[in-house]
Amino acid sequence: MTPRMNIFQAAPDTMKAMLAVEATLENSGIEHSLLELVKLRASQINGCAYCIYMHVTDAVKHGENHMRIHLLDAWRESPLYTDRERAALNWTESLTGIAETGAPDEDYELLKAHFDDRQIAYLTAAIAAINFWNTVQISLRAVHPVEQAAAA
């Protein structure tokens, strides 16, 4: 795959603003591990290899359990996720597929059982942001780094 352009060079002001959004989200008080799961799950749904690579790498760097990463696509069937994480992942799926889901009231009510209004606002913004990044990286054919695998 050949990248179409470097958006950081073509639209630096927009990318600077998005990086400021990301910095704000990181300082929102929502735990980093949860934000990484949300970003990774949305990226899986959208099929963004670049973002999947980046968020798996970041999650592992911050101590996330490998099995939780592997099972994230099946989080509903795995006991490895907390009720709070489940509510956030459910909201992630709802908003990532908003054209089909319409962000139903029952998904929002589930979220309210585990997050206050401020946290819901930041979580919603984080989901919107990762969907932005997925759209940018997929549409412009961003290619993730390729590391040499160790011999088995």
Please characterize this protein's 3D structure.
There is one protein chain. The mean pLDDT is 95. The chain has one domain (32-139): AhpD-like. Helix content is 66%, strand content 0%. The two termini are 27 Å apart. It has 152 residues and is mainly alpha-helical. The chain has nine helices and no strands. Helix 3 packs antiparallel against helix 4 (49-61), helix 6 packs antiparallel against helix 8 and helix 6 (83-96) packs across helix 9. It has helices at residues 7-10, 12-26, 32-46, 49-61, 66-70, 83-96, 98-101, 105-112, 117-139.
- Helix tally equals 9
Which consecutive residue ranges, at least 5 long each, have pLDDT under 50? none
The Cα radius of gyration reads 16 Å
The H/E string reads: HHHHHHHHH
Q: Provide the number of structural domains.
A: 1
By CATH reckoning, the class would read: Mainly Alpha
Q: What structural class do you assign from the helix and strand content?
A: mainly alpha
> Could you give the count of β-strands?
0
Coarse shape: globular
* Biggest pleated-sheet summary: none
- Mean pLDDT, to the nearest integer, reads 95
What percent of residues are in strands?
A: under 5%
Brief write-up:
The chain is mostly helical and 152 residues long. It is built from 9 helices and no strands.
Give the topology.
Layout: H1 7-10, H2 12-26, H3 32-46, H4 49-61, H5 66-70, H6 83-96, H7 98-101, H8 105-112, H9 117-139
Key descriptive features of the protein:
mainly alpha, 152 residues, AhpD-like, globular, single chain, 0% strand
